[in-house]
Amino acid sequence: MQPDEGLFTRQLPGDRYREQTDPVLQLEQINVNFDGFQALTNLSLQIGVGELRCVIGPNGAGKTTLMDVITGKTRPQSGRAIYDQSVDLMTLSPIAIARRGIGRKFQKPTVFEALTVAENLELAMHGDKSVWASLRAKLSGEQQDKIDETLQLLRLEGDRARRAGLLSHGQKQFLEIGMLLVQEPHLLLLDEPAAGMTDAETEYTAELFRTLSGRHSLMVVEHDMGFVETIADRVTVLHQGQVLAEGSLREVQANEQVIEVYLGR
Ligand SMILES: Nc1ncnc2c1ncn2[C@@H]1O[C@H](COP(=O)(O)OP(=O)(O)OP(=O)(O)O)[C@@H](O)[C@H]1O
Ligand SMILES: [Mg+2]
């Protein structure tokens, strides 16, 4: 099942243009097998510095598993994963991978509900200190600025002293993105970030991701095609653990196999 190569190299009018950049992530021939079930098969994928890549595909295609591999949560049976052109992710623990600048947002928001919005950001900023030590540690002026800037970016300035548990679902999603941003990641992995958001929140998330790309590299898994259309530089379609197609959204939308297994339904 090889997609038509020619179709994916042509630049169509109206496609978002971006200069080719060095790869921030190179996955080569990744295989993941769970007790006989092949979740990823010979998966190769490359993401450029500052690129915003969307990964789409039917339920069970392996999208979350792909993020598990990149973050060290799941170890593949074979394959290579190179970050920043020289770091072999296969040799690093999940904590070491996060410290190297790969941040991840899970499908369900996980904020500290009993703490305020600002405290959540402080905690994330201090990373591996204990909760108590983090909240007592005095922030430098620079750190304070970073928190203010992040609150503003996420439109949470007015809620900084509110308990995170009182935020709307969408605001919790924003806060969790903020908790990643204060750690200044190079590569951000976001699994269905717009799930459960209102239309207005989804629209702002799209705007936010466009703002973040360039400065950060992003890999976004999302089912909402309108959202994908607004944000993606390139789109990778996964199906049964394999890359079915890759290119601009227009290109993959025109692909017969993609229509058959994903878009047509
Ligand atoms: N730890 C595991 N043990 C066994 N099977 C697993 C495990 N994790 C994932 N799988 C299986 O691997 C396949 C891919 O799952 P994955 O969660 O990566 O899909 P997905 O593309 O993220 O789907 P969705 O769109 O529903 O989130 C599924 O069939 C799933 O049941
Ligand atoms: Mg998933």
Compute the CA-based radius of gyration.
19 Å
User: Pairing-aware structural class of the strands and helices?
Assistant: alpha/beta
Overall pLDDT score: 89
User: How large is the share of residues in beta strands?
Assistant: 15-25%
How far apart lie the N and C ends? 19 Å
Question: Stretches where pLDDT falls below 50 for ≥5 residues?
Answer: 1-15
Ligands in the structure?
A: adenosine-5'-triphosphate, magnesium ion
Biggest sheet, in brief? 6 strands, mixed
The CATH architecture term of the domain at 5-108 and 186-263 is 3-Layer(aba) Sandwich
Please trace the helix and strand order, writing H or E for each element: EEEHEEHEHHHHEHEHEEHH
Q: What do we call the CATH topology of the domain at 5-108 and 186-263?
A: Rossmann fold
Tally of strands: 10
- Looking at this structure, what is the CATH superfamily of the domain at 5-108 and 186-263? P-loop containing nucleotide triphosphate hydrolases
Biggest sheet: strand arrangement: 6-7-8-3-9-10
Tertiary shape: globular
The total count of helices amounts to: 10
List the helices and strands and how they pair.
Elements: E1 23-34, E2 37-48, E3 52-56, H1 63-70, E4 78-83, E5 87-88, H2 94-99, E6 102-105, H3 117-126, H4 131-136, H5 141-153, H6 169-181, E7 187-191, H7 199-212, E8 217-221, H8 225-231, E9 234-239, E10 242-247, H9 249-253, H10 256-263
Parallel strand pairs: 3-8, 3-9, 6-7, 7-8
Antiparallel strand pairs: 1-2, 1-4, 4-5, 9-10
Helix pairs in contact: 3-6, 7-8
The structure holds adenosine-5'-triphosphate (ATP) and magnesium ion.
